[in-house]
Amino acid sequence: MLDINLIREKPEYVKAEIAKLHIEAPIDEILALDAKRRRLVAEADELRSRRNALSREVGRSGGGEAAQGLIEQVRAINARLEVLEAELEATESALQDLLLQVPNLPDESVPIGRDESENIVVRTWGVPREFDFEPLPHWDLGPSLGIIDFERGVKISGTRFYILRGAGARLQRALITWMLDLHTQKHGYLEVYTPFLVKQECLIGTGQLPKFADNLYRDIEDDLWLIPTAEVPVTNLYRNEILDADQLPIYHVAYSACFRRERMSAGRDTRGLKRGHQFDKVELVKFCTPETSAEELEKLVHDAEEVAQLLEIPYRVVQMCTGDLSFTAAIKFDIEMWAPGCREWLEVSSCSNFKDFQARRANIRYRPRPGARPRYVHTLNGSGLALPRVMIAVMENYQQKDGTIRVPEVLVPYMGGQRVISGP
Predict the structure, then answer these.
(1) Averaged pLDDT for residues 364-380
(2) DSSP labels for 194-232?
């Protein structure tokens, strides 16, 4: 959420920055409601002051007709205040709803562009492997080895679901456990395990609601929502809290299943594991001071990159232009692994700095020093990394001519010493 003072004081600047995102936001409506709210507050304050003065006069009047006249004035003020307070409550609620529809503003370093075609490749790592045979896409490779079962996934749950079998399930579990160990033992993150169901206010806090309600799964009876990413519960761990400065920065890593409605036209994105309604992810979340968030984003990207490097899979880092930023991010970098069977770069991590956007929505603050006025923290997150696309990259990059898959060296201990996947 943007600071209302920024919108009030620099409306044309805010409009110009939002225009770079190629979306619309109700800035004029916000300004009108904000002006109305301030008028109502001023009138209510004036009436309360007048009521207090009249009440003191009643006390000094000694009773009688004079007192009765003053009491009638107080009653009239109370009646008007009741109307004003109801109108003020409705105005504040409408204003809050509009503010939740305003996206974050892009950082000044973000390149201006219309859509993903204008994103910038910042760097690449590794050289795509040259095969002496035609590499298979994972949707052929996995079933041929018996480690992916698409048909039974559809039978159980419908389209965009699948079953991992035997070594396939173990490979995914090995990746998750290894990534958690890497981030906790080397990168300094504290692992947390959080619920997969959250309250509505948690999704408002991280920016998924109200804008992306159609992409989420919801239990209406208990009004709980299945998380689209562990970012939601982990960020909300500190909702409505004031942290001490010496607690920052806070680094958390969490494994979770993720649930999203994927709506898209038929095509290659619908094949295989790439887009499913349920998938697993290891998420990195940071809380820091405004002064350090740019540096923390660099570290975050590095931590995610190291996963790809240790797996020895070629990847590239792509900076999102303004037209391809998410609703909540001020600046965002994607890490994309090369998948030779699919013949495409697969996004396995989006590393974002939200600055104080989420912190304002979730009311997460810190006190710079004892007795100082609280300030909003900056929040950041990124996948470290996301399944099943890492699975796709591993399977396709490590496939062999005989149809088997070699296990990446860093995963061998997590696979119980298994070095080759030749079946379930």
Answers:
(1) 97
(2) --SEEEHHHHHHHT-TTTTGGGS-EETTTTEEE-SSTHH
